[in-house]
From TrEMBL:
Residues 883-905 are annotated as: Disordered. The keyword Repeat does not apply. It holds the Pfam family AAA_16. GO terms for molecular function: adenylate cyclase activity; ATP binding. This is Orc1-like AAA ATPase domain-containing protein. GO terms for cellular component: cytoplasm. It comes from Streptomyces griseoviridis. Keywords: ATP-binding, Nucleotide-binding. Gene3D superfamilies: Tetratricopeptide repeat domain.
Length: 905
C-alpha cells in the first residue's frame, strides 16, 4: 500500500473490524476457548488486505501469536504453498529435534509437505497429509499464546491448501485458533470456486462481502490525504472516477499529491487520466518510464512470485547485486515494490498490491515470459531445491521436444506424489505429454499419469492407462503393472466385469511363469469379490487346483493361497482347511515382505480377503492381529483416507465377531466418519454401514440401526463387490427387527437366491436361512423346519463351533418342550467353545428361557452385559423376573415351552 494506505483502506470498515475484534476477544477469553473462522470477500482493491492487517494489529495487541500467508496468482500449481507460508516459519525457528518432538508421530507425514523433511519412498496419502497438517496446527498451538492465522488472496491458493483449510475449519470446535481469510470471488472458478464456497459455509460468523466507499467516505479520504481545502466537486469526482474502490482511491490521491494538482473543481477533469496510470496500460506505461532495467527487474519479480529475493531477481536478468539493489529502490519509490530496510541481496521483495503483480506479469510478452520461466527453473534447480520446486516454472515453458524437461517433470511428479499432492503430479505429467516425450518414453509417462490419478479420478486413470498400454514402450513387469493398475481403476469405477476381462486377456498373452501367475491371481481376486452372478461355474474348482500346486514360495503363490482360502470360506467348505490354506500364505505367522498393508503391488483388497477369512472360520486371534496391524500401519504411514476407513471397519468386524459390541460400534462409527470424506457408494462405505447396522441389531438397538440405514442409504441396490457380512441378509434381519415382517421375509429370500447363485453357503457369513426360518416359524412351520435343517447341514459342513451352535439355536427356536430344551442346551454348550461371546450369551439366555433355569439366565445376563448387548440383557432380566432367582424355582423344568426368539438375537 502507498503511504496512508492501511488506514485509508479501513474507511467505513468499522463493522468488519468490530467482528474481528470480538473474535480475538473470544479467543483470548480462556484456554478452553473454541476456535473460529472469519471469511471476508470482495473484488480487488476493496480493502481485504488492509482488514487482515488490522486483524494482525488487534491480535498482536492482545498477545496472540499471528501467522500469515497469501495465495499467489503464479503459484497455484505449488502444492501446500500457502500452508507452508503459515506453518514453516514456526518450525524452521526450532531445532530439528524440537520440531520432531512437537509434531510427534506426524513429523514423517507432514514434514515433507511443509518442506522441513525429505519425502518418503512411497506415495503419501493426500487425506493423511491433510489430517496431519490439521494436527500439526493443534500441536503447535498447544502451550503457546492464542493463535491467529491470516490468509489473504485465498482465490489463488493451491488445491492442497484449500483441502487443508476446509479440514481445519471443521476441527476448530476443539482447536483454540482464529482463522481469518479473504478472497476475490470473481477470480475463482471450477474446483477452486467450489472449495471456497465450502470454506465459506463453515464460517463462524456471516460471511462479509466488502462494499465500495460511499461518496462521503471518498470525500473524507480525499481531504485527509490532500487537506481540508479540497472542494466538494473535486472530492465527488474522486469517488466517480474510482467507483469508490479504496485501493484506486488511495493510488489516485497519491498521484494527485505527486503531481501537485490543486484539489479544486477546475482540476477535476485531470483525475481520470491520473487514475488510468494506476492500472492496466497506464500502470505499465508508468513502469516503462522507469527505464529498461527497472522494467526487466519488475518482470523478474513477477515471474518468481512470492518469496523472491533481490539476488534471485538479479540472477534471472543477469545484473550485479549493487545494481539490483538500486533497481529495487527505484521500484519502491515508484510504488511498485515494497521491502524492509535496509535492502540487501537477501531482502525479500513483494509487490505493493496483487493488482500490480498481475498487471506486470500479464504485460510480459508470451515468448519472453516462457523463456524467463525456463531460466527461473534452472536457477531453482541450481540452488538444489529439487524438481518439484522448479515445476511451477517448467509448466510454463514452451513445448519444444526437450527430453531433459520431460525427465524433470517426471521427477517433479514423483516428488509431488511423495508429499501427497497428486493434483500437482498430474499437472506435471500432462505438461510432459505436451512436450512431447520421445516415443519410447510416452507410454511410461502415460502410465505414471494413470498412477497419479488412481486415488482421485478412476475414470481418468482408465483412459490414461489404456492409452499407455496401446502405445509401444511398456514391456515385461512394467506392462503387467499397468494392466493390474488398469484393472484396479476399473474396479474402483464400478466396472468389475471389465476389470476381470482385462487381466484375463493379458494373462492369455503370457507363457507360464511369474507374470502369468500374478495376472491369474488378480483375475481370481476380482472374481472373488464380485457380488454378481457372472463368475464361471468351475471357477472355484480351477482356483483350488491351481492353489494345490502353490507352496507359498513367492507372493504370486501366496496371493493364490489367500484367494483359495477366502473362496473356500465364502462357499462354506471346511473351516479347518480355510485356516490351513490361509496360514500357508503367511511367513512365520506374519505377512510376507512385499505383501504388507502399505505395499502397493497387490493392493489392500487381497489382504482384506485374507484377514476376513479368519473371523468366519473362528480364528479371531489371527484376524484381530491382522486388523490391528492394518490400523497401525495406515496410521503410521499417515493414510487416513479409504485405507484407514476400511481398517477401522474390519477392526469393528473383528470386535463384533468377538462380542465386544460397544467397542465394535465405536470403531465402525469412526470408519463411517472417514468413509464420508472419501465418498458415498464405494465398497468401503458399505462395509462400515453394514457392520454398524449388524452390531446395533446385536446390541438390541433396532431403532438406531434403522436410523443408520436410512441416513447412509443401506438399501438396494447393493454394490457390485462383496460386503461382509452379506448386506442383504443383514437388511432382512433389520426389517424383521423393526416390524416390517413381509419386507424382511422378501429380503431374506432374495439373499438366499443370490447366495445360491454365487455358491456362498457359509451360514455365518450369509445367515439368511436361520433368520428366515424363525420368521416363518408360525405361518409355515414346514418350510421353516426345512430351512433350519439345511442351515444345520451347511454349518456341520463348515464345522466351526459358531456355525453349528447358531444352527442349533435356530433349531431350538422352532421346537417346544423337552426337544427345545435339549437343542438349546446343545447350542449353549457348543457356543461356549466358540470365540463369539455374543452368540454364546444369546444361547445361554435362550436355554435359560426354554429350561426355565434362573442359573442359566443369570449366566446369560452376565455375558450379555459384558458384550454390551442391551436388548439381550433386558430379555434375560424379564425372564428372570418370571422364573425367579436361583433357588426359588427348579433350575430345569421339563416340558417347559420355549418362548418366541427375538429376531435381533
Amino acid at each position: 500500500m502507498t503511504e496512508g494506505g492501511p488506514t485509508a483502506a479501513l474507511w467505513e470498515r468499522d463493522e468488519e473490524v468490530a467482528v474481528v475484534a470480538r473474535a480475538v476477544d473470544a479467543l483470548c477469553a480462556g484456554r478452553r476457548s473454541r476456535g473460529a473462522l472469519l471469511v471476508f470477500r470482495g473484488e480487488a482493491g476493496l480493502g481485504k488486505t488492509a482488514l487482515l492487517a488490522a486483524a494482525r494489529r488487534l491480535a498482536e495487541a492482545r498477545g496472540c501469536a499471528v501467522w500469515s500467508a497469501r495465495g499467489g496468482e503464479t503459484l497455484r500449481s505449488v502444492p501446500y504453498n500457502v500452508v507452508r507460508q503459515l506453518l514453516q516459519p514456526a518450525l524452521v525457528s526450532m531445532h530439528p529435534e524440537e520440531a520432531r518432538a512437537r509434531l510427534g508421530d506426524g513429523y514423517d507425514v507432514v514434514g515433507p509437505a511443509l518442506g522441513i523433511a525429505g519425502p518418503g519412498e512411497r506415495q503419501a496419502d493426500p487425506q493423511g497429509v491433510c489430517d496431519g497438517l490439521v494436527e500439526a496446527v493443534r500441536r503447535l498451538a498447544d502451550g503457546e499464546p492464542p493463535l491467529v492465522l491470516l490468509v489473504d488472496d485465498l482465490q489463488w491458493a493451491d488445491q492442497e491448501t484449500l483441502r487443508w483449510l476446509t479440514a481445519l475449519a471443521e476441527a476448530l470446535a476443539d482447536l483454540p485458533a482464529l482463522v481469518v481469510t479473504a478472497y476475490r470471488p470473481g477470480d475463482a472458478g471450477g474446483e477452486t470456486a467450489r472449495r471456497l464456497d465450502g470454506v465459506a459455509a463453515l464460517a463462524h460468523a456471516p460471511v462479509t462481502t466488502l462494499s465500495t466507499l460511499t461518496p462521503d467516505a471518498a470525500a473524507g479520504l480525499t481531504r485527509a490525504a490532500l487537506g481540508e481545502s479540497a472542494d466538494a466537486a473535486f472530492c465527488h469526482e474522486v469517488w466517480t472516477v474510482t467507483g469508490g474502490n479504496p485501493y484506486d482511491t488511495v493510488e489516485l490521491l497519491a498521484r494527485v499529491r505527486d503531481s501537485a494538482l490543486d484539489p479544486v473543481e477546475a482540476n477535476a477533469p485531470e483525475l481520470r487520466a491520473l487514475k488510468e496510470a494506476g492500472r492496466g496500460v497506464g500502470l505499465i506505461a508508468r513502469l516503462e518510464e522507469l527505464g529498461v532495467d527497472a522494467h526487466r527487474f519488475a518482470w523478474a519479480a513477477a515471474v518468481l512470485g512470492t518469496g523472491v529475493t533481490v539476488s534471485l531477481a538479479a540472477a534471472l536478468i543477469t545484473v550485479g547485486h549493487a545494481e539490483a539493489v538500486r533497481l529495487a529502490q527505484v521500484l519502491r519509490e515508484a510504488r511498485f515494490l515494497t521491502f524492509a530496510d535496509p535492502v540487501g541481496p537477501d531482502s525479500e521483495l513483494e509487490f505493493v498490491h496483487p493488482l500490480i503483480a498481475t498487471a506486470v506479469y500479464e504485460s510480459i510478452p508470451d515468448a519472453m515470459r516462457r523463456a524467463m520461466h525456463g531460466i527461473a527453473a534452472a536457477l531453482v534447480t541450481g540452488l538444489g531445491l529439487g524438481a518439484a520446486a522448479a515445476s511451477r516454472h517448467l509448466l510454463q515453458v514452451h513445448p519444444d521436444d526437450d527430453e531433459e524437461l520431460v525427465a524433470q517433470l517426471r521427477e517433479a511428479a514423483r516428488e509431488h506424489l511423495a508429499v501427497g499432492a497428486p493434483d500437482a503430479a498430474r499437472q506435471c505429467l500432462e505438461r510432459a505429454l505436451a512436450e512431447p516425450p520421445a516415443p519410447d518414453t510416452q507410454a511410461r509417462v502415460l502410465y505414471e499419469l494413470g498412477c497419479a490419478t488412481l486415488l482421485t479420478s478412476p475414470a481418468t486413470t482408465i483412459g490414461h492407462l489404456r492409452e499407455a498400454l496401446g502405445t509401444p514402450g511398456l514391456h515385461g513387469d512394467e506392462r503387467v503393472d499397468a494392466v493390474v493398475r488398469l484393472s484396479q481403476a476399473l474396479l474402483h469405477n464400478d466396472q468389475l466385469e471389465e476389470a476381470v476381462r482385462t487381466v484375463e486377456e493379458e494373462a492369455a498373452r503370457h507363457p507360464e511363469g511369474p507374470a502369468r501367475l500374478r495376472l491369474q491371481a488378480v483375475q481370481y481376486m476380482w472374481e472373488g469379490i464380485h457380488a454378481g452372478e457372472s463368475a464361471a461355474p468351475d471357477r472355484s474348482e480351477r482356483l483350488a487346483a491351481l492353489a494345490r500346486t502353490c507352496t507359498g514360495r513367492d507372493n504370486s503363490e501366496r496371493a493364490l493361497l489367500i484367494l483359495r482360502g477366502f473362496d473356500a470360506m465364502t462357499r462354506g467348505e471346511s473351516a479347518d482347511e480355510v485356516a490351513a490354506v490361509c496360514d500357508r500364505a503367511l511367513v512365520d505367522g506374519a505377512l510376507a515382505p512385499g505383501l504388507g498393508w502399505t505395499d502397493t503391488e497387490w493392493g489392500l483388497e487381497l489382504l482384506m480377503m485374507l484377514a476376513s477369512a479368519y473371523p468366519y472360520a473362528d480364528r479371531l486371534d489371527r484376524a484381530e492381529a491382522l486388523f490391528t496391524d492394518a490400523l497401525r500401519a495406515y496410521e503410521k504411514a499417515g493414510w487416513s483416507g479409504g485405507h484407514l476407513a476400511l481398517a477401522h471397519a474390519y477392526v469393528g468386524l473383528g470386535l463384533r465377531r468377538r462380542g465386544r459390541l460397544i467397542q465394535a460400534e465405536a470403531a465402525l462409527r469412526e470408519s463411517l466418519r472417514l468413509a464420508e470424506r472419501v465418498g458415498r457408494g464405494l465398497p468401503l462405505y458399505w462395509s462400515a454401514t453394514c457392520n454398524l447396522v449388524d452390531t446395533l441389531l446385536a446390541r438390541g438397538h433396532a431403532g438406531e440401526a434403522w436410523a443408520v440405514a436410512e441416513q447412509y442409504g443401506f438399501a438396494p441396490p447393493y454394490p457390485s463387490t462383496i460386503v461382509l457380512p452379506d448386506p442383504c441378509s443383514v437388511r432382512g434381519r433389520l426389517l424383521l427387527a423393526v416390524g416390517r415382517v413381509e419386507d424382511g421375509v422378501n429380503e431374506l429370500e432374495a439373499a438366499g437366491k443370490a447366495a445360491a447363485a454365487r455358491g456362498h453357503h457359509n451360514p455365518v457369513l450369509v445367515p439368511w436361512a436361520a433368520d428366515l426360518a424363525r420368521a416363518l416359524a408360525a405361518e409355515d412351520p414346514g418350510r421353516a423346519a426345512l430351512l433350519a435343517a439345511d442351515a444345520r447341514r451347511q454349518a456341520e459342513r463348515f464345522g466351526t463351533d459358531t456355525a453349528i451352535g447358531e444352527a442349533l439355536r435356530c433349531a431350538a427356536a422352532l421346537e417346544s418342550g423337552r426337544r427345545a430344551v435339549q437343542l438349546a442346551a446343545e447350542a449353549a454348550a457348543r457356543l461356549e467353545r466358540s470365540p463369539c461371546r455374543y452368540e454364546h450369551a444369546a444361547a445361554r439366555v435362550e436355554y435359560g428361557i426354554a429350561a426355565r433355569s434362573a442359573t442359566e439366565l443369570e449366566r446369560g445376563l452376565a455375558l450379555a452385559r459384558s458384550c454390551g448387548a442391551d436388548g439381550l440383557a433386558a430379555r434375560a432380566r424379564e425372564a428372570l423376573h418370571t422364573v425367579g432367582r436361583p433357588g426359588r424355582l427348579p433350575a430345569n423344568a421339563p416340558g417347559a415351552t420355549a418362548r418366541p426368539v427375538d429376531q435381533t438375537a
